[in-house]
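Q: A reviewer asked whether we had any structural model of the full assembly, not just the individual parts. We don't, so I'm hoping you can provide one. Inputs are below.
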Amino acid sequence: SYALTQPSAVSVAPGQTASITCGGNNVGSKSVHWYQQKPGQAPVLVINFNIGRPSGIPERFSGSNSGITATLTISRVEAGDEADYYCQVWDNTSDHPVFGGGTKLTVL
Amino acid sequence: QVQLQESGPGLVKPSQTLSLTCAVSGGSITSGGSFWSWVRQPTGKGLEWIGRVYTSGNTKYNPSLKGRLFMSVDTSKNHFSLQLHSVTAADTAVYFCARVSLNYQGNTFDIWGQGIQVTVSS
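A: Here is a predicted structure for the entire assembly that you could use as a starting point for your response.
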């Protein structure tokens, strides 16, 4: 079955840029979506279709996807960006979603 | 603005059935272009897809839960439901309901409920 791999943790200082990767076999051929989940809250869609930003998501959030790696980039990181981030694709073979294992972003 | 709200018991005894309902407000559950799903998250762990249901009643379940799972839609009440049978401690988790928007490029979980903690314990 299809699998997505994320680093378990990423740390960044305030004001710097955070990059969170999501690896998968030929993931560049799929649409990758990213979710932000703060403690005790539901996930929130922050990037859809690799590069799209849903309404209300700051421009500091961006995405890219090519080859075997998709990347969520957060520019000018703020303390409020500290959260778990999950990537997700839809596996057309099994017709069900696949989530990455999640990355905990710590703002130093 | 569509909103989702889970409801159900927070404590279920082992071997019994976990039953949850997700109420849809701010829009009709029969509006096109989407289906309805459940996702769970054990404490400190990642997201696990449980299954999805169309308003037609068509379902698809996570193979790891197949045989124990039943999902349904009640369009008259604008809600959808989950039943998980023969639960064990491994089923203890926060359960989220979510709307999945359909797109030929890939489906997204664009609206989520706040989640409900369900503990399996005697």
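A: Points you may want to mention in the reply: Strands of chain A lie at 9-12, 18-23, 33-37, 44-47, 61-66, 69-74, 83-91, 96-99, 103-107. The longest strand of chain A covers residues 83-91.
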